[in-house]
Design goal:
Layout (H helix, E strand, L loop, with lengths): L1 E11 L4 H11 L3 E10 L4 E11 L5 H15 L2 E6 L5 E6 L4 H11 L6 E7 L5 H6 L4 E3 L7 H14 L4 E4 L8 H6 L4 E5 L11 H8 L3 E8 L9 E8 L6 H24 L3 E4 L2 E4 L2
Parallel strand pairs: 5-6, 5-8, 6-7, 8-9
Antiparallel strand pairs: 1-3, 1-4, 2-3, 9-10, 10-11, 12-13
Bound molecules: ligand LMY7XDAE.
Amino acid sequence: MNSEFVLTLSCPERPGILHAVTSFLLGHGCDITEHQQFDDTEHGSVFLRTSFSAPTDGVTLDGLRDEFAPVAAGFGMEWQLRDAAVKPRVLVMVSKFDHCLADLLYRWRSDALDAEIVLVVSNHPDLEPLAAAEGVPFQHVPVTAATKPEAEALLLDLVEEHRIDLVVLARYMQVLSDDLCKQLEGRAINIHHSFLPSFAGAKPYHQAHRRGVKLVGATAHYVTADLDEGPIIEQEIIRVDHRAGPERLVTVGRDAERLALARAVNWHCQGRILLHGNRTVVFS
Ligand SMILES: Nc1nc2c(c(=O)[nH]1)N[C@@H](CN(C=O)c1ccc(C(=O)N[C@@H](CCC(=O)O)C(=O)O)cc1)CN2
């Protein structure tokens, strides 16, 4: 029985990167099961994701990490090596709209999410029954302008207490502070209910209706201090026409939100996303 691991890395472009990776893996009796690479010749950077199986006797994750570190240092790599069998622990944040939370819980229950949903946090009590129905703990953390600092401190305590790997904002309608965004950099994903960069901010479907668009969509992105400006992971669109009023756009938009968010969460948890400045490389 072999173990499955995933190596992701980025580094300055130069000859010998792939050779270094593959000879390291071969030297440890590992077999590559999937490989994807992107050479950004414009910026002189290489992005790579390799999944591989390793013999269980004598090969451990920590051992591979310790022995790959000097190889990586020689190329100036930023890298991650993780056990593909270990599902990242996810905290889902939500306000009153339930469609994204319900979708993620259903995918998790039906083993279609490569993550463990361990906690739901909301600034309203309304969706506690939805989490309870799936046996997931729910924490009501009210937020006002005055209480936002302590509410965010509690959230960070929960992230640490529950050993959270990823925070998912599944229609959480409060703006996170710059400090919280810094603390959660690269491990918080938001679903914005428009096809960014169009209609950022509040009420995007009403903005879209006023503009008379023929396509509406949703955007899953990493959360940064700049509202709706974080690195885009996935987008989904749906065709509409003149008959669709704002309410109808809200309704059809939900499908785009559910799909874009679920894909983004799965790809993040499978180690298929690498940050590239304010953009992403997605090995889907
Ligand atoms: N630092 C960030 N925080 C959040 C982001 C983000 O990109 N960076 N995304 C939002 C989600 N969102 C749009 O996708 C969004 C949510 C809320 C608002 C907003 O103006 N909220 C008001 C309060 C509204 C209310 O109480 O119902 C506010 O916070 O003053 C805009 C965009 C999640 N957070």
